[in-house]
Design brief:
The chain is an alpha+beta fold and 238 residues long. 59% of the residues lie in helices and 15% in strands. The chain has helices at 7-18, 21-32, 37-43, 45-78, 88-105, 119-126, 128-144, 169-184, 213-229; strands spanning 109-116, 151-154, 159-165, 187-189, 195-197, 200-206, 235-237. The strands form two sheets. It has a five-stranded mixed beta sheet with strand order 2-3-1-6-7, sandwiched between helices. It has a two-stranded antiparallel ribbon with strand order 4-5. A hairpin with a 5-residue loop joins strand 4 and strand 5. Helix 1 packs antiparallel against helix 4 and helix 6 crosses helix 7 (128-144). The mean pLDDT is 88.
Amino acid sequence: MIKKIDKPSIRAIQGAIAAFGAPLGWLGIRFFNGAEPFIEIHTNPGLYLYMLFGTMTSFSLFGYYVGNKEQHLTQLSLRDALTGVFNFRYFQERLKEEVQAANRFNTSLTLISFDIDHFKQVNDTYGHPAGDEVLIAITQAASSALRKHEVLARVGGEEFAVLLAGCDEKNGKITAERIRNIISSTSVTTSDGKNISVTVSLGVSELKKKTDAATLCKQLDRALYQAKEKGRNRTVAL
């Protein structure tokens, strides 16, 4: 598979290409002043090499810096400010892409949705700053249960979603249970010394043939609703 070139590298390459303008521009000025191009280059090779490689180095470094800033800003626009995982906007865009790919190539796609049980009580009892610390800790715990290519996103206040491309319902439920067990065994110690433990309810749903993203999400919502109705701290697959 061809590896995608990152934005800093692209900007560095563009800077290097733009650097050719410096010696060519000076050569153009000398030409209009009556100098012969080939004689000019032969007479002053060091000057043109200095302009070429000096400018190439400067432009490449500046291009890499600009590209790095652009990439950082792009990442910020796709990340949840509190937890650092992907946000709802990114999840929606990625879901549409993965649904189209799964339908086109007849591959598996499974979603997990989970939220923290009775999270309002956490905020009411310990305060919103403590609630934020719980959200961060729970996100880190869930991330540790996932593989690198599996997408975790915060899609609501205390609600999260996981996109599992190439995964069927059976394995999706295994992953969901792994998330549930890790979170239930996580004790969050807040900055003011309070110890808080929470559980999560999870819904799991696999993409059916020729189903669109909206239908899959409705099916997932039903699964999560049933997990809550059956007592919470459990996984339901539909």
